[in-house]
Amino acid sequence: MGLLNGGVAALTEARGEGISPEAQEAEPANCFRHIGALSLTKLADGLIDPKLVLSWLMGAIGAPAFLVGLLVPVRESGALLPQLLTAPRIRAMGQRKWAWAAGSAGQGVAALVIVAAALLLEGWLAGVAIVGALAVLAVARSICSVSYKDVLGKTVAKPHRGTVTGAAGSVAAAGVLLFAGLLMLGLIDRFQLVIGAITLAGALWLLGAITFATIEEEEKPGNVEAEAGLSQLALLWRDRGLGRFVLARILLLPTALAPPYLVILAGSAGDDRFGALGAMVLASSLAALVSSWVWGRLADRSARLVLALSGAVAAGFLALAVGLHLAGVMGTVWAAPLALFGLMVSYQGVRLGRSTWLVNYAPEDNRAAYTAVANTTVGVALLAAGGFGVVASILGADVTLGIFAVIAALGATIAFFLDDA
């Protein structure tokens, strides 16, 4: 808590770079509101994690395996692909905090629909309802993603943006850590605990919407003449800095894609405990807790270096996982958790680095378009990355992780040579 207070205190000491004089006056209070709203919604994200929590829930209610396999693709691509279409309307708004608040509220309602489906339905019918609600949640999340960077750029000065998002990540990680502990202790029926966690996630998103709506954002004329739809993709080659950033971000996707293959590798080595829901949530939340604030502070100095370091860390730990497998020790109690922890630390760095870099680099009146182009392009790449499942089934999870290590190293190299926004 002292670390968080110190970071927030630092925000109030220096003001100004990148925001108007009016926004400078409101910045200290706005920083607290940003941290509050982001902490609530990031905690909600952790409580409803499709890779872990929703996958377990779908199995518990008897949903077919093919529906379980749709969770992560629907969640990730649904949060990215619609942005190219929603960005022009959001850019036309004078105050874009209302778009973020609406998106957060939409995620809350969708989470509560998931709870209702799990309690009232079963089997394939429940599975279809949950996947459908998750798709709505993902689209609502895409609205938040497009609008947030612009609101952050208008209300928080450049030297403080990474700190705000990093502090919120650490607060949320502490809450998810408590959830993981409850799952591992087994003091509460696991199904009831998961249902309670998703219900809480819905409430947190709704409260986050209310909190974000109180941010003091200047009313500015919207960009009503903005390019719409697919024509915005021309930004990728018109602005070579943006194109290089998108390429680096695609090459850093192994930080998000690799965890399931690491779990497969650990399971094949006989470490069944590592596959437990509580242990997985614990490893992920610990990584976020110890790294988010640090990555955020570093991003305020150089988001470019954060991306490069994160890619290098990912490549190193992925290579370590392959090495531990070849050495025959992946089944030990420490090997797989160590590799996953390092990978999730790098994932947090990529998330913070890419967000801070893009906010600082994009023109003030065109941030939403830059965000939408980047996210939509990465969303398409995520769909294509499903082909790595075929690679893993043919060559094995260890070969797939080795390929991911090489890709992450390439991403780190390209990120290192980005413009220092």
Structural class: mainly alpha
Largest sheet: none
Radius of gyration: 21 Å
Order of helices and strands: HHHHHHHHHHHHHHHHHHHH
Strand runs, count: 0
Q: Short description, anyone?
A:
The protein has 421 residues and is mainly alpha-helical. It has 20 helices and no strands. The protein has a single domain (22-416), classed as Up-down Bundle (Growth Hormone, Chain: A), CATH 1.20.1250.
Give the secondary structure arrangement, pairings included.
Blueprint: H1 2-13, H2 21-47, H3 50-60, H4 65-68, H5 71-80, H6 83-91, H7 97-120, H8 123-155, H9 161-185, H10 190-213, H11 235-238, H12 240-251, H13 254-257, H14 259-268, H15 277-301, H16 303-326, H17 335-361, H18 367-384, H19 388-395, H20 397-416
Describe this structure in words.
With 421 residues, this protein is mainly α. The chain has one domain: MFS general substrate transporter like domains (Growth Hormone, Chain: A). Helix content is 79%, strand content 0%. It has helices at residues 2-13, 21-47, 50-60, 65-68, 71-80, 83-91, 97-120, 123-155, 161-185, 190-213, 235-238, 240-251, 254-257, 259-268, 277-301, 303-326, 335-361, 367-384, 388-395, 397-416. Helix 8 (123-155) crosses helix 17, helix 9 packs antiparallel against helix 15 (277-301) and helix 14 (259-268) packs antiparallel against helix 20. Mean pLDDT is 85; it is low at 1-15 and 271-275.
Key descriptive features of the protein:
421 residues, mainly alpha, Growth Hormone, Chain: A
